[in-house]
Design brief:
- The chain is of the alpha/beta class and 250 residues long.
- The protein is 38% helix and 20% strand.
- It has helices spanning 18-34, 47-56, 84-91, 96-103, 128-144, 168-179, 196-200, 214-221, 235-245; strands spanning 3-8, 36-42, 64-67, 72-74, 110-111, 122-125, 149-154, 158-163, 186-190, 205-208, 228-230.
- Strand 3 (64-67) and strand 4 form a beta hairpin.
- The longest helix has 17 residues, at 18-34.
- The chain is globular.
- The protein starts with a strand and ends in a 5-residue tail after the last helix.
- Bound molecules: magnesium ion (MG).
- Magnesium ion binds next to loops.
C-alpha cells in the first residue's frame, strides 16, 4: 500500500486546465480507494472564494483546507469553523488593528475586498514596481513597532501581511505532523510566490507546474534540484507528471 500526502495550491496549479484536472481526479479517486492518501488544498483564497470555485470547477473533497495563505485551517471544509489550535499559534505577537493603522498611510496599497481580510491576514493589491520600493520600507515600519510579521508578495499583485507563525508552509507542517506523514511521503505543488513557503519549510517533495510564475522559477534556479521537480505540463497535468516522477502514482 502506498501512502502520501498531497498538498496543492488551487489557482493556476490544480485549477486552470479542466481536461487535465479531470484526468488527475480520476487517478487520485482510484488510488484513494486502496491507499492511504490525504489531500490538502492550500490556497490564497478565503473559504468564501474557495466555495465559489467549487461551483465552477470539479474538485475532489479534500481532507483539509488551508485558506488565506495559511492563516485559516478547516479540518472539515464543509463547516465554517477554523482549527482553534492553529488560530492560537497565529495569535501570538499579532496585532491586526495596529497593522491596519500603520499601512493606511500608503496610497499605493489598495485593500483587497473584506471577504479576503481575515483575523490573521491583512491583504492589499499593489503593482510590482510600487511593491519593490514599498516592501522594504513596510518591513522597517512594522519592525520598529515591535510587530513580528511576514510580508508575502505574489502573482505581481497580492501583498499579504501575515503573523510570523503563519504561512502555507507552516500550516502544512502543522497538519503533516498531526496526521503522521513523513516529509518524504509529502508532495507539495504550486505555481507562484506564495507557494515558496510550501516548498521551503521542510524537505518535502515539490512539484512546480510548467506554467509557474517568474518569482517561483527564480526561486527554483537557486535551489538544490533533487527534491523539486519542474514539470513540463501545465496545471493539473504538471501535478500528475510530478506524482509519477516521484512514483506516488503509476
Ligand atoms: Mg496559484
Amino acid at each position: 500500500m502506498s501512502q502520501f500526502l498531497l498538498v496543492t495550491d488551487l489557482d493556476n496549479t490544480l485549477v486552470g486546465d479542466r481536461a487535465a484536472l479531470a484526468t488527475l481526479n480520476q487517478h487520485l479517486t482510484a488510488q484513494r480507494q486502496n491507499d492511504n492518501i490525504k489531500i490538502i488544498y492550500s490556497t490564497g483564497r478565503s473559504r468564501f472564494l474557495y466555495q465559489r470555485l467549487t461551483q465552477e470547477e470539479t474538485l475532489l473533497c479534500p481532507d483539509a483546507l488551508i485558506c488565506s495563505v495559511g492563516t485559516a485551517i478547516y479540518l472539515n471544509p464543509d463547516e465554517d469553523k477554523t482549527d482553534a489550535e492553529w488560530d492560537n499559534k497565529l495569535s501570538q505577537n499579532w496585532d491586526r488593528e495596529l497593522i491596519v493603522a500603520l499601512t493606511a498611510h500608503y496610497s499605493d496599497l489598495m485593500p483587497q475586498p473584506d471577504s479576503e481580510q481575515t483575523d490573521y491576514k491583512v491583504s492589499f493589491c499593489i503593482s510590482p514596481s510600487a511593491a519593490k520600493e514599498l516592501i522594504p520600507r513596510l518591513k522597517n515600519v512594522l519592525a520598529e513597532k515591535g510587530l513580528k510579521t511576514k510580508i508575502i508578495y505574489s502573482a505581481d499583485k497580492d501583498l499579504d501581511i501575515l503573523p510570523e507563525n503563519g504561512d502555507k508552509g507552516l500550516a502544512l507542517q502543522y497538519l503533516r505532523e498531526k496526521w503522521g506523514f513523513e516529509p518524504e511521503n509529502t508532495v507539495v505543488c504550486g505555481d507562484s510566490g506564495n507557494d515558496i513557503a510550501l516548498f521551503s519549510v521542510e524537505p518535502c517533495r515539490g512539484v512546480i507546474v510548467g506554467n509557474a510564475k517568474p518569482e517561483l522559477r527564480q526561486w527554483y534556479q537557486e535551489q538544490e534540484r533533487d527534491r523539486c521537480y519542474f514539470a513540463q505540463d501545465f496545471c493539473a497535468g504538471g501535478i500528475l507528471e510530478g506524482l509519477k516522477h516521484f512514483s506516488f502514482l503509476t
